[in-house]
Each structure stands twice: as C-alpha cells, then as structure tokens.
Amino acid sequence: MRYVSATDAKQRLAALLDAAQREPVTIRRQKRSVAVLLSAHEYDRLRALNAEEFQQFCDRVAARAAARGLTERKLARLLTAHGPEARRHR
Predict the structure, then answer these.
(1) Mean pLDDT in residue range 17-46
(2) Alpha helix (H) residue ranges in the chain
(3) Which CATH superfamily includes the segment(s) 2-38?
C-alpha cells in the first residue's frame, strides 16, 4: 500500500488516481491515515463482499430463529407489541 500526505495528494491527484488502479493509496494528515483511494473495481469488489457476508449473517440468524420456532407471524406480533408505536402508548 502506498502512503502520501494530504498536501501531496492535492498536488498529484492525477498520478494518484493512476496509482490507485494498481494498489490502494492511503492519504495521511498530521501522521494519521484519513482516507484511502481505491480503484472503482476494488471498491465494487469490497461492497459485493460485504453484501455477501451480510446475507450469510442474515441467513444464519434466520435459520437459528426458525430452529427455535420463530415464524414470520410470531415475529410480526413481536414487532407490533414492541415497536415504536407500542412504546409511545406506554
């Protein structure tokens, strides 16, 4: 990974955009990393990976809930009984 100062990043944006096609570029300000410049392809890959991991998490939670007898109907009742509207009327 490449590191550049925020000042350098401002002055050499075009070159950093090219560099980001090969590897992430970390922009630092006062010795702290403040941003990472990624290629659009890498950004899309990371977003897809996060979406896939989230879906797998949801599937695991749903399977555990179903194994314990939670149905969509029971969930709807729970949400109605404990939702924001119910709390306002307590």
Answers:
(1) 96
(2) 6-11, 13-19, 40-67, 72-82, 84-88
(3) YefM-like domain (3.40.1620.10)
